[in-house]
């Protein structure tokens, strides 16, 4: 396989770490972009730091000159933009920062590629959150979202990501760049951030067991348990990102399992698998409800199945077991 160079942003996060592993295994040089931080946040990529093909670079999406210089210097074959303010709840508290990173930051990359490295293929991390409150309905009543479903985002995060999604489309059609978006539904793993609901539940279970099931252990506080999500495994989803950039033409794809579960179902299954009952340990906290909620996500990945040959390997139950480490 010929050696390729890829810039990957967001390498301190869940997807960036898995994608870096996949690219290194596939004979890539990875230009691993992280923003400067005063504390060490490299724990998800510690095992990659000694690899000579993993080149750590400082990079902040909101700084255009740094973005341009990085693109000009490396002229990569592929660019995977996984960096974002990725927490939906936080986007209600920091809407302007969210827009600056998730929309203006993406525009900086598009401008950098257009001016300094137009042969570079771009993957942009779009999201099912862009669908917001909308879904399509099949004749048998099944509700789902796919590439044709209209997007009606319900959060500053969703709006910022949709603006970036549309920006990518303009640069693809207007400047003929190879730029595409993966509309990824929720995906989790043992490397998921602790502020997302699945990892919050799993971490509480592990900490509670480690405490010797102390009666004084604080309860698990959660918000809306009725929301439905289509949850897959991050390892499956980074494979789809790579597959999208190996195509002849750039296209956007929905990446999902096609199954949906409520937060309550995730909670029940995780607790049950360690012989605990959530009713004894969970407290509903009204402060954890969002000002606007996406109640139902269920992706239809038919286009990715047929056009990319992509299929998820890990089931909902398998995901929970992997996160629990059992
Ligand atoms: P994550 O774990 O929260 O990682 C986000 C990464 O972005 C972190 O490495 C973070 O760095 C970096 N970042 C934030 N602001 C930055 C800036 N201004 N400049 C440079 N880097 C910055 O997210 P993830 O779950 O891996 O998701 C990857 C991407 O896919 C994100 O764009 C997310 O919005 C999108 N997405 C995720 C899912 C999902 O279910 N996981 C679904 C659809 C789309 P620090 O360590 O410095 O904070
Ligand atoms: N985070 C969190 N914390 N969510 C909670 C809690 C809680 O204590 N209690 C209930 N929830 C509900 C949220 O209201 C939401 O309906 C659901 O659990 C999932 O929340 P998150 O895990 O924070 O994920 P998300 O769906 O909002 O966003 C994730 O998926 C998007 C794709 O649809 C993120 O990874 C986004 O970056 C990604 O784009």
Write up this protein.
By secondary structure, the protein is of the alpha/beta class. The protein has one domain (4-189, 230-259, 297-314): 3-Layer(aba) Sandwich (Rossmann fold), CATH 3.40.50.720. Helices cover 38% and strands 17% of the residues. The chain is built from ten helices and 15 strands. It has helices spanning 14-25, 64-74, 88-93, 95-116, 156-175, 197-210, 234-245, 263-272, 302-308, 316-324, and strands at residues 4-9, 28-34, 54-58, 78-81, 121-127, 136-137, 143-144, 179-184, 187-188, 220-222, 228-229, 232-233, 253-255, 261-262, 282-284. The strands form five sheets. The protein has a seven-stranded parallel β-sheet, sandwiched between helices. It has a two-stranded antiparallel ribbon with strand order 6-7. A two-stranded parallel ribbon has the order 9-12. Helix 1 (14-25) links the parallel strand 1 and strand 2. Helix 2 (64-74) packs parallel to helix 4 and helix 4 runs parallel beside helix 5. The mean pLDDT is 97. NADP nicotinamide-adenine-dinucleotide phosphate binds next to helix 1, helix 4 and strand 5. Guanosine-5'-diphosphate-alpha-D-mannose is lined by residues 86, 88-89, 127-129, 185-186, 195-197, 200, 222-224, 227, 229, 263, 288, 290, 293, 297.
């Amino acid at each position: 396989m010929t050696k390729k160079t890829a810039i990957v942003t967001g390498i301190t996060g869940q997807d960036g770490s898995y994608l870096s592993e996949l690219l290194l295994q596939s004979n890539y040089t990875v230009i691993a972009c992280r923003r400067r931080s005063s504390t060490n946040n490299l724990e998800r990529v510690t095992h990659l730091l000694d690899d000579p093909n993993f080149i750590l670079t400082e990079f902040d999406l909101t700084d255009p000159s740094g973005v341009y210089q990085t693109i000009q210097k490396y002229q990569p074959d592929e660019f995977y933009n996984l960096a974002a303010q990725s927490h939906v709840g936080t986007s209600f508290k920091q809407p302007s920062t969210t827009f600056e990173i998730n929309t203006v930051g993406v525009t900086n990359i598009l401008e950098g590629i257009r001016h300094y490295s137009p042969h570079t293929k771009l993957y942009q991390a779009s999201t099912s959150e862009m669908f917001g409150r909308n879904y399509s309905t099949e004749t048998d009543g099944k509700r789902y979202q796919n590439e044709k479903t209209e997007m009606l985002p319900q959060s500053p995060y969703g709006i910022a990501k949709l603006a970036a999604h549309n920006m990518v489309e303009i640069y693809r059609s207007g400047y003929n760049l190879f730029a595409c978006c993966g509309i990824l539904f929720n995906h989790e793993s043992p490397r998921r951030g602790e502020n997302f609901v699945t990892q919050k539940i799993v971490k509480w279970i592990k900490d509670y067991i480690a405490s010797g099931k102390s009666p004084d252990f604080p309860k698990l506080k959660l918000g809306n348990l009725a929301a439905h999500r289509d949850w897959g495994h991050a390892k499956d989803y980074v494979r789809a990102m790579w597959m999208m950039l190996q195509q002849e033409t750039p296209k956007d794809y929905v990446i999902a399992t096609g199954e949906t579960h409520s937060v309550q179902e995730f909670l029940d299954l995780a607790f049950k698998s360690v012989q605990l009952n959530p009713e004894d340990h969970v407290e509903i906290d009204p402060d954890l409800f969002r000002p606007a909620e996406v109640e139902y996500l269920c992706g239809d990945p038919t286009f990715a199945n047929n056009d990319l040959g992509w299929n998820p390997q890990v089931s909902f139950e398998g995901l929970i077991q992997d996160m629990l480490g059992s």
